[in-house]
Amino acid sequence: QLQLVESGGGLVQPGGSLRLSCATSEFTVGYSSIGWFRQAPGKEREGVSSISRGGGTNYADSVKGRFTISRDDAKNTVYLQMSSLKPEDAAVYYCAASRRGFVGLPPLQSGPYAYWGQGTQVTVSS
Fold this sequence. Notes:
Elements: E1 5-7, E2 10-12, E3 18-23, E4 33-39, E5 46-51, E6 57-59, E7 67-72, E8 77-82, E9 91-98, E10 115-116, E11 120-124
Parallel strand pairs: 2-11
Antiparallel strand pairs: 1-3, 3-8, 4-5, 4-9, 5-6, 7-8, 9-10, 9-11
């Protein structure tokens, strides 16, 4: 089972920013598609953003213009920069990896992603 480790969560005020990291020492993130997902209490898990092997990116409508996904191949880490945070962004954020290649944008559905981290909590509150 490949291991992913998320970090960077915490408490932030509305309008603030956080950067989440997703790291692994077990495979090369640049050879995989990586997705960020979130799940709030009582809600279904939803896809937030993803990045493909080739660097293509995909965003949920709810975060477009506020979140940015990026990858640092030297550090074997994928980041999710979150800005202009809203209370509705509060959730446990998970990163996930797929070794599959995809045609078009990397998916925001969880099904194609076989490997998951344990999650990091993001709380947005004044």
